[in-house]
Amino acid sequence: MLVTLIITLIIALVIIAVIVSAIQQHKERLATLKRAEYSKLRAVLEDSEELLVNSANVPLSPAVSQMLLKRVAFTLRAMVELEPGARDLKQRLQETESQLTNSPPDSGTPAESVTLPDNDQQLIGMIKGIKRLRTVLRGEHARGNVDTQMVIQEDRRLEVLQLRINVESQIKRGNQARTNNMLGSARQYFEKALTALTNTPHQDDYTSTRKSEVLQALEDIATQLKEGNVRDREKKEEKENKDLDELFAPKRKW
Fold first, then answer.
1. How far apart are alpha carbons 117 and 213 in whole angstroms?
2. Which of 10, 15, 126, 173 could be stapled to 189 by a disulfide with Cβ–Cβ 3.0 to 4.6 Å?
3. Considering the domain boundaries, does residue 243 fall inside one?
4. Residue 49 is assigned to a structural domain of this protein
5. Which of 79, 73, 72, 74 is nearest to 34 (CA)?
6. What is d(CA 53, CA 36) in angstroms, rounded to the nearest whole number?
7. Could you read off the pLDDT of 188-225 as tens digits, one per residue?
8. How many domains does the chain have?
9. Which residues are within 8 A (CB) of 145 and not within 5 positions of it... i.e. 6 or more apart?
10. pLDDT at residue 234 above 50?
11. Does residue 74 come out as left (phi exceeding 0), alpha (psi in the -120 to 50 range) or beta?
12. Is-contact 223 250, C-beta < 8 A?
């Protein structure tokens, strides 16, 4: 009888240990999933806020600003659900919702002109910012958060803006190379600008004007290179004639 009781107690303890272990493992899995989801949400939040801050370099339309603010608010709500005691998240959520409420109505698209930075890294950052913004725009459309017409309009605007930044950058570099008498490099920069202007489906007054300017620059460079080649050939012929004169000149007697 005692042996049976001991065996029963051992079995019960084993069962309890297995159950406790299973519960603990389940809690750990939930905690791991929660941390992963929180990290994912934090990355989305940081990405959205960075795009909003980058509006100083890449002009945002009111529609895109609203989309990003809604994305921030949605992310913060999800983070608050995971961390109900996080006061800082609740405060940021209130501030974001207040911005959404008080934001001005859509007054059209911003000006397309942008000021190019002198630093190449900043320029690369602008291009990356536009590409990220276009990716976010399409992602929010796939989730049903923005309508199709808005996506088409804004994606086209960003594509044109990206084209202008690319073209203006190549022209700027081409002019700098011409100033430094690096005509080969200048020609390459202007050819890249011409390719971008020719291949874009968005043909307008800007592309026509810039294409004419780039073609004129390439024509001027071709003339300069041709004149340079003529000068080099003349110098070479002059040197060869001089060498021949020295070769056939009467030898001096000592």
1. 22
2. 173
3. no
4. yes
5. 79
6. 26
7. 999 999 999 999 998 899 999 999 999 999 999 998 88
8. 1
9. 67, 70, 71
10. no
11. alpha
12. no
Residue for token digits 């700098």?
176
Cα dist. 44→37, 97, 128 in Å? 11, 17, 16
Q: What is residue 188's predicted lDDT score, i.e. its pLDDT?
A: 93
Q: Is residue 31, in this structure, part of any structural domain at all? A: yes
Range of the domain at 79: 12-103
Average pLDDT score over residue span 80-104: 87
Burial zone of 6 (CB within 10 Å; 0-12 exposed, 13-18 middle, 19+ buried) = exposed
Question: Judging by beta carbons within 10 Å of its beta carbon (0-12, 13-18, 19+), is residue 213 exposed, middle or buried?
Answer: middle
Q: pLDDT for 50-86, tens place per residue?
A: 898 887 777 888 889 899 999 999 999 999 998 888 8
pTM: 0.70
Task: Please return the burial class of 166, using the count of CB atoms within 10 Å of its CB with bins 0-12, 13-18 and 19+.
Answer: middle
Is the pLDDT at 97 greater than 80? The verdict is: yes
H helix intervals, the chain: 2-53, 62-82, 87-102, 120-142, 148-179, 183-199, 205-248
Rounded Cα gap, residues 170 and 176, in angstroms:
10
Look at the block and give the residue holding tokens 């949605």: 74
In a domain, 173, yes or no: no
Asked if 93 and 80 count as a contact pair (C-beta separation under 8 A), the reply is yes
